[in-house]
Amino acid sequence: MSVSCKAPSDMEPNRSRLLATARPYLQLFSVLALTPPPVFFESPSHLRLRRSLKIGYGCFACGVLLLVTYECYVNIMDLQHKLEHFHVEDFSKVMGNIHKGLILAMAICNHLNMLLNYRRLGGIYEEIAKLEADVDAASECCGGQRRCCSFRFRLAICVGLWMVLLVALIPRLSYDRLNLFASQTDKIITEIVLIMLQFKGPEYCVFVMLVYEVMLRVRYTLQQINQELEDCGCRDRLQELCVALKRNQLFVGRIWRLVGELGSYFTLSMMLLFIYNGFTILHVVNWAIIKKDNYSYQYMRLGVSVMLTINLLLVCFYSECCMKAYKGIPRILGKIRSLSVAEDFPTLKMGLREYLLQMQHLKLLFTCSGFFDISLKYFAGMLVTILGYIIILVQFKIQAFVEAEKKNIF
């Protein structure tokens, strides 16, 4: 007995279960002035109150930006004291100033991104909510979605756990090592700023996990269609499954466009995050060579480098998982195409051909507006590049130490 397909219905962002699950993370990011609060994108009621909230949050974000600017100034002054203390005459000053400048640049770009891409973010929320509603409604004709590991649990393990580790590790690894001549208050504020900047990675991962969850549901519905076609002999039911297959194809196209919107929204933020983390690793290695202190500090520097690398690795890994789920759809279509019913029913045959052509042309890629791909392949290339620069840096330092020894001898 066939189950009738329900018509997809619209769903407001504040009624989406996926967005409701991600809401605590998004609220935390908004407290750190990384993204607008989710309440700004809910149903348009109490417009005057919402306008007041937006003005208040704008003032709060400006205050955070001023605080970051002040801390960058304090850190630059602290850098000058450290350079004089350790008698460093090489390019450490340039590297240090660029490093502090990148912190301010990331904060400014995050604030500009919230302002200029506000409507785009609202469109992303709306599309995720509509996709969730439409996919769940369309899956009813194939038995509905399976309930295994909940999205809340996966989000907590994949993103929440790493956020907790970042909060615990950044102060532990950096407090005694940075801001040698700064006050304790400046040290604490600097650590909060560093946590805020690194949370841009988990924020991106939350959106990737939302897309990944919708992708898994679309793929599962396609698998259900494949199973029903194996034993289906009713012509009316075949027609229903052809309609479900066409709807599934449209969902995949919408996911592809959604990923493109995510890439446009996070372009500047993710580019600066990759640049900042890579440059910070070089900066840490530079000071590890200059400051020949006890082994505990050297282990802390190694821990900072590993932590920054893992933060980028998780971003690339979750993006890769989503792309692999997308690439699994053509394999399911190939199984359907090999069924005898696909040859006997012309409508199904034409639908499969059109679906396969779409998958060949619409390659799912997580990119920063085409500047580079966010994938494990790019991550490996970035690691090789950083190692190359570290080797060059060590060679320069060895040459500088040799010249300094010669001056001391003569």
Task: Describe the protein's topology.
Blueprint: H1 17-31, H2 47-85, H3 92-116, H4 118-138, H5 151-174, H6 184-198, H7 200-230, H8 235-265, H9 267-290, H10 295-337, H11 340-344, H12 346-361, H13 376-409
Short description:
By secondary structure, the protein is an all-alpha fold. It has helices at residues 17-31, 47-85, 92-116, 118-138, 151-174, 184-198, 200-230, 235-265, 267-290, 295-337, 340-344, 346-361, 376-409. Residues 6-11 have low confidence and may be disordered.
Describe the overall structure.
This protein has 410 residues and is an all-alpha fold. The protein is built from 13 helices and no strands. Helix 4 runs parallel beside helix 7, helix 4 runs antiparallel to helix 8 and helix 9 runs antiparallel to helix 10. It is elongated. The chain starts with 16 loop residues before the first helix and ends with a helix.
State the helical fraction. Answer: over 70%
Provide a count of the helices: 13
Structural category is: mainly alpha
Strands, total number: 0
The overall average pLDDT, rounded, is 84
Major sheet description = none
Structural key phrases:
410 residues; mainly alpha; 13 helices; 0% strand; elongated
